Amino acid sequence: MTVFSLIIINKAGGLIYQREFQPGLRKLSTNDYLVLAGTFHGVHAITRTITPKLPYLATTPASNTSTTTSSTPTSATALASPSGTTTPIPNTTSTAATYMYPIPGVAATGLDSLETDKFRLTCFQTLTGTKFLLFTDPHMANVEPVMRKIYEFYADFVMKNPFYQLEMPVRCEAFDRNLNGWLRGRT
Amino acid sequence: MSYYFTILSPTDVPLFNIAFGTSKSGGDGIARFRFPDTAQYMNQFIIHSSLDMVEEAQWMNGNMYLKHIDTYPPASAYISAFLTPSGARFLLLHQPPQLPSTAASASGTSGSILGGSFSASALGGGSSRASASSVAANPTSPQTEEAVRQFMGEVYENYVKTVMSPFYRQGMEIRSSVFRSRVTAAGRKWL
Amino acid sequence: MAQPPRHAAMLSLSNSNSNSNSNSNSNLSTASDSRQPAHLATASHSSTGLRVPSNRKTIYDRHLNRSRNAELSRASFAFLFAEMVTYAQRRVTGIQDLERRLNEQGYPLGLRLLDLLFYRTISGSTSSALSSSSSTSASPPNRPLRILPLLHLIHGPLWRLLFNRPADALEHSVSPDTPNEYMITDNDPLVNTYISVPKEMSMLNCAAFVAGIIEGVCDGCGFEAKVTAHNQPTEMWPGRTIFLLRFGESVMEREKVLERAGVK
């Protein structure tokens, strides 16, 4: 049940938070962390783009007019449409109108987790595009509740703090204190 | 009985005032003061002159309702006071209607003597409109005190509602016509 | 299709917002109404430009105890307070200036709360919410005349009204030089729950807003005072805050007079 460290990346791919939770863990240099955050951000975007898509077998030829999308009853059309601004699919191209995701109605999420035999990296992306990367023991089960609690702390002690500026590095003493206290209480 | 009610801010700025008459025992709710119509400012004079008494009583008595605190014998005007915790003063001047006996007894300085003579006159002659009601005729009787207390309590409730309005700042004149009609209704109900 | 109803709803909203003071063109100015017959006062209700909400309910028709036991979302308060701090932070010259602005935001609240608190104590005669105050359920509470009852009022009923619990400590300054100083301690002020003050502003305590509320209550009761909020963290309570109340000269003089007069 070991949580090694946490990284938070803002929606532009910048590193805004990095903490280790195990004493004496070897640290990378600040620059390396920044590169790591930017690289992961790029890889995450690529994984979304390369999500396989199936050909969309529509009875009516898929048109590229934007007005039809909101009135079509199937969500698949809305998802695959290039003008579906309400659905979070950033990688739609003009040819995507005739393709759809394997499970219609579910947007591509991109990289969820990355596992080696020494550690597991779990990625959680909020609705606003902030990414939480959690480095844990590969044998640790139930990463999901830990992630959810971290998100809760973030929503409470970062987003409700009048001195926090959006997209800027997180320097909130109450966030650190509560996060550390909670993680220590778990082990 | 005629009434003149005023609300003063802690710094003695008049926030609200209204004149009305009794509605008990056939009263028509119209104020009939003893001063000529050209001398209505007398009410304000008398009420403001009682402020010294209020400020003296304010720190000796922790109640919000200070009861009858001042009398102005020449006009047989009685003043009851109510203090809100935030320092606003509610002052009610009540003046019994002119009676033949009033002029004689008004020379007495003590309110209780006056009150005694009034209740006596109320018991004696039942024909006149004012003397038919014991509440209206006797400004210092327990019934009157209780009626004034109820009146003040009801005004206080509406005052708190005014104060809680986000558009009201302390010390602002209360100009709401709803408030005015509420005070009028309270007067009709209790006085 | 959805346009007309939405518009109507907005209209009624704006009505309800302005009902409390939109009657400025009332024909009853205070200077003249003593000369007017009283019955005009009631008649004017319909003739003024007063706009009443569509459901005909003004603030005077709502009961003051309606929200007595209502609960407020902590998150929405936190967001609101965060915006208040951000607002106060605009064009400030320093930390003291920021604290002063927060204090000024709280001050009018204190004045209002005082009246509301007493009203609720009178009307809610069960007095369970105010059991620690000296008042009995039958008689209305007394206005505080001395410093100690005032402090108990703040420590108990006011804190319960605001935060649903009493404050954690009430102390008198031990120094003989400052007999006019009192301290109220809150181990974990609600307003600071989600706030982390940056290191370069470590002196700042956003509970200055609460200090302003206390100051409003003291001033409203006729106790001139300056109230400030200070950080005093402990291992157990990192957000512990002390509210320092400094009463003015006039209050201390009156206190001596009242003590001699035997007023409690």
Automatic annotation (TrEMBL), chain A:
Its main location: endoplasmic reticulum. GO terms for biological process: endoplasmic reticulum to Golgi vesicle-mediated transport. The keyword Transport applies. One of its GO terms (cellular component) is TRAPP complex. Keywords: Endoplasmic reticulum, ER-Golgi transport, Golgi apparatus, Transport. Residues 61-88 are annotated as: Disordered. It holds the Pfam family Sybindin. It is found in: Endoplasmic reticulum; Golgi apparatus, cis-Golgi network; Golgi apparatus. Part of the multisubunit transport protein particle (TRAPP) complex. Belongs to the TRAPP small subunits family. TRAPPC4 subfamily. This is Trafficking protein particle complex subunit.
UniProtKB/TrEMBL annotation, chain B:
SUPFAM superfamilies: SNARE-like (SSF64356). InterPro entries: Longin-like_dom_sf, Sedlin. GO terms for biological process: endoplasmic reticulum to Golgi vesicle-mediated transport. It comes from the Eukaryota. One of its GO terms (cellular component) is cytoplasm. This is Putative trafficking protein particle complex subunit 2/Sedlin.
TrEMBL record, chain C:
Residues 1-54 are annotated as: Disordered. Part of the multisubunit TRAPP (transport protein particle) complex. Belongs to the TRAPP small subunits family. BET3 subfamily. The keyword Calcium does not apply. This is Trafficking protein particle complex subunit. It is found in: Endoplasmic reticulum; Golgi apparatus, cis-Golgi network. It comes from the Eukaryota. Plays a key role in the late stages of endoplasmic reticulum to Golgi traffic. Keywords: Endoplasmic reticulum, ER-Golgi transport, Golgi apparatus, Transport. Residues 11-29 have a biased composition (Low complexity). It comes from Aspergillus homomorphus (strain CBS 101889). Its main location: endoplasmic reticulum. One of its GO terms (biological process) is endoplasmic reticulum to Golgi vesicle-mediated transport. Pfam families: TRAPP. Gene3D superfamilies: Trafficking protein particle complex subunit 3. InterPro entries: NO_sig/Golgi_transp_ligand-bd, TRAPP-I_su5, TRAPP_component. The keyword Transport applies. One of its GO terms (cellular component) is TRAPPII protein complex. The lineage of its organism: Eukaryota, Fungi, Dikarya, Ascomycota, Pezizomycotina.
